[in-house]
Specification:
alpha/beta; 3 helices
Amino acid sequence: MNLAVTKNDDGTVLTVAIEGSIDTVTAPRLEAELNPLYDGVRELILDFAAVDYVSSAGLRVIMSADQRMSEAGRLVLKNVCEDVREVFEMTGFDELLTIE
């Protein structure tokens, strides 16, 4: 599976649009894309408009990003589709993450 990541940085707010599935194969790539981005960012927005699936490996990357951002700002998930939102709800992650 392929994963496409597009970044839009306006200084303190960084929007990362993700396209594809975040699974065991693609989660390490997403993590590698996110790791160098945290410095100076007050708000990290992950745009899930084109994400159709998140596995436990993907959830781990998202929770790691949330923990990193909690030190300097916040993480927001936007445009989460119904299927992915159900994964967050079943795992209880919807209570831990900011989903708009």
